[in-house]
Design goal:
single chain; 864 residues; alpha+beta; nine-stranded antiparallel beta sheet; 19 helices
């Protein structure tokens, strides 16, 4: 028997402690994750989620049951969870403590000897009576109540038709969830109220609440009490449909299904399916999942609808004498803000704060709600939250990354007598937000309005700036074989291209879905321009019918038979819309179909009328007047150069080269050789230096766009045309040493803010790193840079693979640590904090395209 030894008589005896330890299997390393706190304040019990898929495991792998997470030698609380609530565990959640700006390493191992018996800090449950019977109520015989029986905790429950509020069937009237800070319950009846259990102890208490009926928990006990008067309101963070009638609670439903998703020490969750919710005269289903982590007061609410709804209200009850507290609206679309209340509003007569936190980009404007109401046959009130611009309408409001025209610096709640609430638009059929409550009666509770306001600011920052992750898995390490060869460079490009084809490349076609931005795709630079272009280039070195078809299936799908372009408005004068034109020129060259030439001609016509600075640089957009952005040089100039070479005998090359010359003159810092993100000729924008008009920081991908643009434009200028080539070659030669100077020596990659590697929250950013690799490799291969840069290009590509590519158990790969978006104006002030606040993503076309292109160029370089 394992762990035992034999005596001299042959009998077994327990092995000594030392021997038993020797016989236990050693931990097997699965991954090391470097984590860093991007905030200048401590974070306690910060949740870190790692999917099994990213760790190189499958849910069916029995080893997931023995995963252990450690910081140094200390095991941290962790739990396998069903994060997407689909019925199967999909990842590991660990709770990590951070000091301000701290970086630490989390080790994930298969460890049979690990503790994994952590104190229970969360709980989710639902209990109903069994063994009793339904009888008419004494006060109203037309209604029924459940008499007798005992409570039984269950994983799933569907109330019978006769159930309604106060029918004594469900303990405390619905499912409950709690952390070591606070508890909540949601009425499983027509009220759909969100209520609060104030806790005086960190231990789980839900199991002893309501055992003797509904009255006792409305009075103070050793564990705490129900502290909220909900009434006919959203309560402590509920939701409802918003129309001209105001907020319609989730009342008219054909039934409810409640399911306990997780009930663990670290993370708990439950779901409610609202069946046949009557909205706008027809039924739909809504699935809500509510989850909590240990050490947090927040509940994450994720809604999934069976069909889109234009406007949902979320908020908290409005009690007399309370103070409204709102967050900033002048922030990026993916950043979190809040609306809440503070005051003596607990049933115990003491201080209580409540709030909902949500992405600012989900907010509806008065115009947006009016448009939605018109579509649904309703007319909404005009006093609503500040959000997306009136002219943008429904599709733009779904873009959580789009800038907004802001009428106020602060969130403006809707005018509702019973609630402090805002109106949000789901991204298609999905919406996520958080709610919380902070009671002064809890141990160490928040006791003043100012403390609560500061707490909400920190909560919003924690949701906006997640801990930085650098994931290194054993599976990925085993798959990365170096040194590079031409074939391996090609194969890495193919791996990501194939993976994305399976995931979502073709979904960017007209009338498809942009999963990353939560909206229908537009005719613009990344999903329709850059990524399909990368497939075209890959097809040149690795012919595959799937790659060859992407250009037509995605970019070509926006072109009508008459040569018009769907999801494009010439008079927006948006230079981002020009970039896909390169693909239209390729399609025309390959097919001779006149519609592609006509469509490209529309883009050329836009550039002919496009507004410019006094020196002749294209404005980034009409709504960004007098502004030259590095991004825009890439969006417009390669197309203009190619169009001019194909149809104008190169007559526009003066204009093309002038764009680069002005960008160098206005944006380049002669001390560093790096470029600022943008320049405002009028020096009026809040992000612009009042003396120079420059934005504050050298953003990696901004300079990445510019670097790719200069080597791409050279493709369309004949070698005999030294007049136009010379200024561009000078830029190439000048830019390369600056890039090498600011390259991270440890990883051979580049930082989000290029010149501040040690700043809190800064991270190695993959899209820019791939772009610079492409620039270096192509410039060396074409002879624009000396051969001494060849090894730099190779090292950079190897660095990108080692640092940013994750290999999955099904053979697919992902590209990580991508800045999702970055821009200036409309809540984006160009500060260091701003660039840190944009989401860090994976598998976005702005990174996928450059990675594939870099692999193609490294392949060609090694073949040359």
């Amino acid at each position: 028997m394992a762990g035992c030894a034999k005596t001299s008589s042959g009998e077994e005896k327990p092995a000594s402690g030392t021997q038993a330890l020797r016989e236990k299997p050693a931990p097997v390393l699965i991954a090391e994750v470097e984590l860093s706190n991007p905030s200048n304040f401590s974070r306690e019990s910060s949740p870190v989620y790692l999917s099994y898929y990213d760790l190189g495991l499958t849910p069916q792998d029995q080893r997931v049951e023995q995963l252990s997470a450690r910081v140094g030698q200390t095991e941290v609380p962790s739990q396998g969870v069903d994060e997407d609530a689909d019925g199967a565990k999909d990842g590991l959640v660990a709770l990590v403590n951070f000091k301000p700006g701290e970086a630490l390493t989390l080790t994930v191992s298969v460890d049979a000897a690990a503790q994994r018996a952590f104190p229970k800090r969360t709980q989710a449950e639902i209990a109903h009576k069994v063994g009793g019977e339904w009888k008419p109520r004494e006060k109203d015989p037309t209604l029924q109540e459940y008499v007798g029986g005992t409570f039984q905790n269950v994983q799933k429950f569907t109330p019978p038709p006769q159930h309604m509020d106060h029918s004594n069937l469900i303990r405390y009237e619905g499912p409950g969830i709690e952390s070591d800070k606070v508890g909540y319950r949601i009425y499983l009846d027509a009220r759909n109220g969100f209520d609060i259990f104030g806790k005086k102890t960190p231990e789980p208490v839900l199991g002893r609440v309501g055992l003797d009926g509904y009255e006792s928990y409305h009075h103070m006990s050793d564990w705490g009490m129900d502290i909220l008067k909900v009434g006919l309101s959203l309560g402590a963070g509920g939701f409802g449909f918003y129309s001209e009638k105001g907020i319609e609670l989730v009342s008219k439903v054909s039934g409810w299904d409640a399911t306990i998703v997780e009930n663990g020490p670290v993370y708990s969750a439950f779901g409610i399916k609202y069946k046949g919710w009557e909205v706008l005269g027809k039924p739909l289903d809504a699935q809500a999942t509510f989850s909590m982590w240990g050490g947090s007061r927040r509940v994450q609410t994720r809604l999934g609808l069976s069909e889109p709804l234009p406007a949902l209200a979320v908020g908290v009850v409005k009690h007399e004498g309370t103070e409204l507290i709102v967050g900033s609206a002048n922030i990026p679309g993916k950043a979190y803000t809040y609306v809440g209340s503070w005051g003596k509003q607990s049933l115990n007569g003491d201080q209580l704060g409540m709030a909902v936190l949500f992405e600012r980009g989900a907010l509806r404007t008065s115009s947006g709600i009016a448009q939605a109401s018109a579509l649904t046959g309703t007319v909404a009130p005009a006093s609503v939250a500040v959000g997306t611009p009136p002219r943008a309408g429904l599709s733009a409001a779904r873009d959580r990354t789009a800038p907004a025209t802001l009428a106020a610096d602060k969130v403006v709640p809707i005018d509702d007598a019973a609630n402090y609430a805002v109106v949000l638009e789901p991204a298609g059929t999905e919406l996520s937000y958080h709610f919380l409550a902070a009671w002064e009666g809890e141990p160490g509770g928040i006791k003043t309005r100012d403390e609560f306001a500061q707490y909400l600011e920190r909560e919003a920052e924690e949701l906006t700036l997640l801990p930085r992750q650098r994931l290194k898995t054993t599976l990925s390490k085993q798959a990365k074989v170096f040194p590079l060869t031409a074939d391996s460079a090609r194969d890495w490009a193919k791996k990501l291209a194939d993976s994305e084809l399976d995931r979502k490349t073709l979904s960017y076609k007209f009338d498809g879905w942009d999963r990353n931005r939560g909206r229908k795709p537009k005719f613009e630079y990344d999903v329709v321009g850059l990524q399909p272009l990368a497939y075209e280039e890959l097809n040149q070195i690795a012919p595959d019918p799937r790659y060859a078809r992407v250009l037509e299936q995605v970019s070509g799908s926006y072109v009508t038979d008459e040569g018009n372009i769907r999801e494009y408005d010439e008079h927006d004068y948006n230079i981002d819309s020009i970039a896909p034109g390169r693909n239209l020129l390729s399609l025309f060259a390959a097919t001779s179909q006149e519609k592609y030439k006509k469509a490209a001609g529309l883009l050329r016509r836009q550039l002919s009328a496009h507004p410019k600075t006094t020196e002749g640089a294209f404005w980034h957009k009409k709504r960004y007047p007098s502004q030259l952005w590095l991004d825009g040089v890439y969006m417009g100039m390669p197309f203009l150069a190619r169009y001019s070479s194909m149809f104008e005998s190169g007559e526009s090359l003066d204009e093309v080269v002038n764009e680069f010359v002005i960008a160098r003159k206005r944006l380049r810092d002669p001390k560093t050789g790096l470029y600022a993100h943008a320049w405002d000729e009028k020096k009026q924008q809040d992000w612009a230096d009042p003396q120079t008009g420059l934005s504050k920081h050298p953003w990696g991908r901004g300079l990445g766009w510019f670097s790719m643009a200069v080597v791409d434009v050279l493709d369309y200028i004949p070698e005999t045309d030294q007049k136009h080539r010379a200024p561009l070659l000078e830029i190439v030669a000048e830019l390369a040493p600056a890039l090498v100077k600011y390259q991270d020596a440890a990883t051979r990659t580049w930082w989000q803010i290029m010149d501040q590697p040690a700043a809190t929250g800064n991270y190695r950013e993959s899209t820019a790193s791939a772009m610079f690799t492409y620039f270096l490799a192509k410039a060396v291969r074409k002879g624009y840079l000396p051969v001494s840069y060849r090894q730099t290009a190779l090292d950079s590509y190897q660095g990108v693979i080692e640092e940013f590519i994750t290999v999955h158990p099904d053979g697919k790969v992902s590209m990580t640590n991508q800045c999702l978006v970055a821009g200036l104006g409309y809540g984006r002030d160009g500060s260091y904090r701003y660039y840190m606040s944009e989401p860090v993503w994976k598998n976005d076309p702005k990174g996928n395209g450059p990675f594939i292109l870099a692999g193609v160029e490294i392949h060609r370089l090694l073949k040359s």
